[in-house]
Design brief:
By secondary structure, the chain is mostly beta strands. The chain has no helices and 10 strands.
């Protein structure tokens, strides 16, 4: 099973980014997919997760600004990030079940 995350980049405060994560090599439906992030010098933390039934769960720090969703393709997940803040700067990781993808860097800076 492989996870491919994309969509990171440099954005100004208040801007938006959309992260995408697709899986390959796994034919069954993965129940929980999510996004985590790790800022320099900090522990990795949950940003948002979503079940195969579409039920989301958000960290308090991103509630109301970020939206997680499942794609039409099997085992894909997106993270729409709006009203980005400098403190959102981190490497963002996709997770599907127990499998981690590679990180994608999000930098929020003017």
């Amino acid at each position: 099973v492989q996870l491919q995350a994309s969509g990171g980049g440099l954005v100004q405060p208040g801007g938006s980014l959309r992260l995408s994560c697709a899986t390959s090599g796994y034919r069954f439906n993965i129940n929980v997919m999510g996004w985590y992030r790790q800022a320099p010098g900090k522990q990795r933390e949950l940003v948002a997760a979503i079940t195969s039934g579409g039920r989301p769960n958000y960290a308090d720090s991103v509630e109301g600004r970020f939206t997680i969703s499942r794609g039409n393709a099997k085992n894909t997940v997106y993270l729409q990030m709006n009203s980005l803040k400098p403190e959102d700067t981190a490497v963002y990781y996709c997770k599907a079940g127990a499998i981690w993808g590679q990180g994608t860097l999000v930098t929020v800076s003017s």
